[in-house]
Amino acid sequence: MSDSNHLIEKYFDRSLSQTESKQFQQLLESDKNFAEQFALEKDVQAALILNQQIQTKSQLQKFEEEISDKKSKPFRRKFIIRTAAASVLLMLFIWSTFLIDRPQTSHEDLFASYYEPYRNVIAPVERSDAANMQNKAFEFYENGMYEEALQALNELYVVEANPDVLFYKAMTLLSLEKYQEAIPILEELISSDAELKNHAPWYLALAYLESGAIAKSKNLLELIGEQQARYYNEKKATELLAILKSLE
Amino acid sequence: MEAGAQITPCHFSLVFLLNMELMRVIDGLKKGDEQFLKTFYYEHREAFLQYAQKFPLDEHDKVEVYQDAILALQAHAIKGNLDQLKSTIKTYLFSIAKFKIYDKLKKSKAVKLEAFKAEYQDQFVYEEAWLDDSVISLRQKLMQSAFLKLGNKCQELLTLYYYRGLSIKEICESMSYNNSNVVKAKKSQCLKKIKELIKS
After folding, report:
1. What is the Rg, in whole angstroms, of the alpha carbon atoms belonging to chain A?
2. Is the pLDDT of residue B5 over 50?
3. With an 8 Å Cβ cutoff, are A48 and B163 in contact?
4. How far is B128 from chain A (nearest CA, A)?
5. Which residues of B fall within a CB distance of 8 Å from A49?
6. Same-domain check for residues A141 and A96
7. How far apart are the C-alpha atoms of A222 and A218, rounded to whole Å?
8. Do residues A96 and A191 make contact, with C-beta atoms less than 8 angstroms apart?
9. Mean pLDDT throughout B162-180?
10. Chain B contacts of A97, Cβ < 8 Å?
11. Does the pLDDT at position B48 exceed 90?
12. Is residue A35 domain-shared with residue A116, that is, in the same domain?
């Protein structure tokens, strides 16, 4: 036994010789206790790697945000907000895998955990009057000044009838907790030719959820999950659907 | 020029430099060093997005694949899989990413692996393990949170051993234990604690 433990030790400090490697493989197949002990230690290693990956993932997301912030000029959103968002995501990631064990969550909590206003990806317009309005609207939007953003987006839509502007109007309404107003816009966007039309179902599902239309929300989440890679956030949709089902 | 090149001193030093670079990358990934990660992330991002253009994915998915590929690369670095790397780190990273892309496409359009490989076979390092290395089991997940509940000593010891790949003897020196047997006993104790924690 101590001899086989020695082999596991050598595996982890990467000093197995070729002969020992063979011996190691044989033991894995023939000795159940050895195989179990090794599997346990491999899982500890995997858990430690996972720990690091969770940290790294939020770092990478931060770099990515910095890139898109640079593209869309204003760099005023506070670091704290971003860190908070990252840690919410992180907690969610850890928590979501344990949901089988603890189904006591309310629908309201779910909206709050899953809703995050979509980043600004709208293409710059050429005409200078519209460009100014667009910059202004998205500056408000990115700084979380949603009342002002709503007004500016409404004005922008008059001069630039781009359906993607409506998408951000819906985001703004969701942020302002005006779900009933956001719903018809999102419903319409799905069958529009907006660049972001495939993003609408996810937010519509969240809006349904928050306004209490659970069945509608579930149907839509199921659709997003089934049509993988077609709609935005298919993984989260499947995850959220599983949570909703566990709440039944 | 490069065909049949012999190992000249110049060539040798190039190999040496490449190895140094590889070691620097492995070290940076293992430590999860912020500055390193940032430079690394920026260094390959544009090239990757360019490269990924030939696949039917949207921007958001491409970025996600790129990030996941770096996370997978980090796991490979920790497990020691990169120590004997024959290709460049970039080729390896892109190969992982290509597998992740395949994984995404497979779900949506039932792409067959053989067809995928045939269609996109350029500089392709193929490893079976990439197909399932991102699957995390429930026990691993439980252990991940159990680990955070361990005492500092246990966390340090397990990290040095399973994550950094230090030998018992090296840990003995680094953590100033009296002898290797004490380290081994402590390690078993910590493993036992983790086991108890995931049971409860």
Report:
1. 24
2. no
3. yes
4. 18
5. 74-75, 78-79, 163
6. no
7. 6
8. no
9. 90
10. 136, 138, 141
11. yes
12. no
Residues of B in contact with A47 (CB under 8 A): 140-141, 143-144, 146-147
Choice among A13-27, A200-214, B3-17, B59-73 with the minimum mean pLDDT: B3-17
Question: For the domain that residue A175 is a member of, what is the CATH number?
Answer: 1.25.40.10
Beta carbons of A63 and B143 less than 8 Å apart: no
Question: Residue A167's domain spans which residues?
Answer: 111-247
* Interface probe with B: pick from A41, A44, A66, most Cβ of B within 10 Å: A44
Question: Where does B138-199 sit in CATH, by number?
Answer: 1.10.10
Which helix (H) or strand (E) segment holds residue B173: the answer is: helix B168-174
For residues A126 and A101, is the Cβ–Cβ distance under 8 A?
A: no
Chain A: residue whose CA lies nearest to B110: A228
Cα separations in angstroms, B167 against A8, A10, B34, B137, B160: 11, 8, 26, 27, 8
Q: Quick check: ipTM above 0.90?
A: no
Residue A110 token pair: 């779910």
State both tokens at B150: 């361990």
Interatomic CA distance for residues A173 and A149, integer angstroms: 10
Rg (CA), chain B: 21
Last residue of a domain, one of A102, A132, A153: A102
Residues of B in contact with A12 (CB under 8 A): 161-162, 165
Instruction: Say whether pLDDT at B71 is over 60.
Output: yes
d(CA B20, CA A113): 44
Domain tally, chain A: 2
